[in-house]
Amino acid sequence: MIMQKRRLGRTDLHVSVAGFGGIPIIALSREEAEKVVRYAYEQGINYFDTARAYGDSEEKIGAALKNVRDEVVIATKTHQRTKEEAARAGIKQSLRNLQTDRIDLVQLHGIDTEEILKKAMGSEGSLAALEEAKSQGKIGYIGISGHNPYVLEKAIETGKFDTVLVPLNVLERRAAEKLIPYARELDVGIVIMKPLGGCGAPLQYPQWGARFLGKPEQDWPDLSEFIPHFGRDGSERAHRSLRFVLAHNVDTVIPGLRSTAQVDHLVKVAEEFRGLTSEEKRSYRFGQLPPEPFCRECRLCMPCPDGVEIPTILRWANHYTFYNIQEWTRQQYPKLGTKVNSCTECGKCEEECPYHLPVITMLKEAEKRLK
Length: 371
Ligand code: SF4
Ligand code: SF4
What we know:
By secondary structure, the protein is of the alpha/beta class. It is built from 16 helices and ten strands. It has an eight-stranded parallel beta sheet with strand order 3-4-5-6-7-8-9-10, with helices on one face. Helix 1 (30-42) packs across helix 2 and helix 13 (310-321) crosses helix 16. The longest helix is centred in the first third of the chain and has 15 residues, at 83-97. The relative contact order is 0.11. Residues 200-218 have low confidence and may be disordered. The structure holds iron/sulfur cluster (2 copies). One iron/sulfur cluster binds at residues 295-301, 310-311, 314, 349, 352-353, 355, 357, 359.
């Protein structure tokens, strides 16, 4: 079978629907990392995502792909926020690391608040450095990445970004509500990170994580109540989770990869994917979001003057009710420093919430379930 390719938004790049997330190769030797990256290319993956902030990931990807540079799409990121830093420590270094004179896509990295977005987009912000590099032919396209769909919607509205990189997985569906349809409408390329929950918090794939990432299994919830046929085998969970993400209207999906076995697994899932079965749709509650009112975790209500971690508590409340993950969320709640009973009902969060949520009532309901 042949890997399906999709046009990346309004760019002229055609990318494999399965892409390569470049964080886990940091843990490999140079030789091993280059072998995995090169193997991914040979199996039909042509989209490679990395970042200046990912240790030596850029260098490993650059070395592995230098002989096939014109056959692949390399996307990196700059976490610098000022024009001067992004030009000096960001783009220049990335070009050197990647052993190339032109990077296909450079994304502003980790734009998670409106404040950071404003800084990066200001006249002395990092976006100006990317625009300058683009006009000099060092960069093909400019993208944006982050974990807060609310902020990313504001960003792509400006028309300055050709692509958006955001998490989407069975437990993290916020991007599906507005960001993905809006990006599609604007013809902005859509790249999905953390389809398996991410390296740091692989919520739904304990065995996958234990087997392939060397992570302990503690603190990960059992999804079997929510999705009965999510078995205990990590590869099977990863298989089903990737299918869930591929069923969305996205251009490429970039799980972090660190072995040829993982590459084989991803390629097989992507090549065989022809849409979800009706049983999968029903079981995943495909296309559904938690019932209203629910918190989008935009964090505009933060910080709470009494230190209540509002978005985290409301996320766990969703996990408890919509996803039926009860035991795990009950275990997590006591570990939070400041809980709902610290709330003095000042009303600030309700005034600031752009979704006009009855936050105080929601917090009280959450505590009844979680405590
Ligand atoms: S109402 Fe409670 S939770 Fe909301 S900001 Fe005030 S103290 Fe914090
Ligand atoms: S309660 Fe409202 S403002 Fe606070 S994080 Fe959730 S959606 Fe955003």
